[in-house]
Structure formats: structure tokens, C-alpha cells
Amino acid sequence: MSIQIPDTADLAEANTHLKGASPQEILAWACTTYFPKLTMATAFGPEGCAILHMLSEINPKVHVFNLDTGYQFPETLQLRDRIAERYGIEVELARPAQSVAEYEAANGGPVYTAEPDRCCADRKIAPLRKMVVGFDAWISSIRADQSIHRAKADVVGWDKKFNLVKINPLLRWSHRDVWAFIMANDVPYNPLHDHGYPSIGCFPCTRAVLPGETDERAGRWAGQAKTECGLHSLDSSQL
Ligand code: SF4
């Protein structure tokens, strides 16, 4: 299948145009420009839940999916049901070809301990690639202040890794902005956030942050060099 790559100048212009726009304005632009070939990936983090609230008011028919690795916390999966109840948005689960039992049996045990990059590639990246076929653009929930990699992203750009336009409506928001929005709008969120988990991924690779740790992602792949699952790493950043 041939990929329709948008003109880089058009994307640069859109990016300039949307630089000072609010997340709702960015989402409205994305819906006008790309719906129905617009999708969103969410791990049900606070940013994703805030965006789902916004989409429920702008266009609740936008396709949304979650990468269901088989290693998510029960609280995360329950949040999917709470979102459906509150907003009527049914988040599709993108699953790997093999169940956790099949995957671990084929690999002589869990892969996340010794080869977390391979585990993320098999259980997140591969299902994402499959899920986005036929879409032109995807919405992500990253914020620039989360990491030096994410600080390099644009509001709108071409994602070379997945051959999609990538839209980051919360790029300029802070952690505090996100939580102020959640509280003001009574947005459902993962209860683990109230128990020392500011950032939540798969349970084998996520722990609560420790006293004195200021990085909100300090509990992700703690003790390893790995800081990203590969969805938002440098080689997928926009032109
Ligand atoms: Fe595997 Fe951990 Fe990546 Fe989840 S976060 S896919 S368990 S390595």
C-alpha cells in the first residue's frame, strides 16, 4: 500500500498556525482535517483521559485504541470501562498476536526482564503498526516537559516511524495543567495515581516513585537505561 505523505511545508505551516492554540483548538483542527482517518493511542494516563474528555465534546466518534500488552494493571483496564460509561467512548484494545502465556512459553519466560526493548517491540509497537493501517493521523498525549526526547516534538508533524501525521495537543501543558483540568472537569483517572504512581505502564516495568524522586517517570523501567517504550522515541519524532 502506498503511503500518502503530506507536504512538509503544509505540516510546518499547520504547526506554526497551532503553536499558541489551546489543546481543544488543536483537537478541533485535527478532527476537521483528518477525521475519520484520525486515531488516538492511549494508555489511560492523566493526559490521555483529559484528551478523551475534550474529544467527547469535540468529536466523540474519533477512533481510540489502547495497547493491551497483557501486562497492564487491573486499574488501567477498569478505567477503560469508566471512560466508556462516562463518555460513551469505546476504546479498542490492540493486542499482540500471542497471549502472555503463549509469548512467555515461546521465550522460556518473561522477556521484559532481560530484553525490555524486544518485549515493547513485540507487545506495543507491532500491534500499533497493525492498528494504524488506514489512518492518516494519530493523536498522542505527550508533554514537552516529560523528557528531553519529548521536548523536541512539534504540535503537528510527520511521524516517520509509523508513517502518520502525529498531533500532540498537550505538548505545551504542564503536569499541573493536566491535573487542574482533570479536577475541574471531574475526569475519571487511574486510582494508582493517588498511591505514588505518577506515570503508569505495564505492571512488571512500573513502580511507585520513591521519596525524593522528582522525575514523574522515575518509576518506569527503574534501574534500566530504558526510558521510552519506542512509541515516542527520537526516531519517531516529527520532521
Ligand atoms: Fe513488556 Fe515492560 Fe514494555 Fe510492557 S513496558 S511491553 S511489560 S517491556
Characterise this structure.
The chain is an alpha/beta fold and about 240 residues long. It has seven helices and six strands; from the N terminus they run H-H-E-H-E-H-E-H-H-E-E-E-H. It has a six-stranded mixed beta sheet with strand order 3-2-1-4-6-5. Helix 4 links the parallel strand 2 and strand 3. The C terminus is likely disordered.
Bound molecules: iron/sulfur cluster
For the biggest β-sheet, the strand order reads 3-2-1-4-6-5
| Beta-strand percentage range | 5-15%
| Whole-number mean pLDDT | 91
Q: How many strand elements?
A: 6
Summarize the structure.
The protein is α/β, with parallel strands linked by helices and 239 residues long. The protein has helices spanning 8-18, 23-34, 46-58, 74-87, 100-106, 116-131, 175-185, and strands spanning 38-41, 63-67, 92-94, 137-139, 156-159, 164-167.
List keywords for this structure.
239 residues; Rossmann fold; binds iron/sulfur cluster; alpha/beta; disordered C terminus; 7 helices
Summarize the topology:
Layout: H1 8-18, H2 23-34, E1 38-41, H3 46-58, E2 63-67, H4 74-87, E3 92-94, H5 100-106, H6 116-131, E4 137-139, E5 156-159, E6 164-167, H7 175-185
Parallel strand pairs: 1-2, 1-4, 2-3, 4-6
Antiparallel strand pairs: 5-6
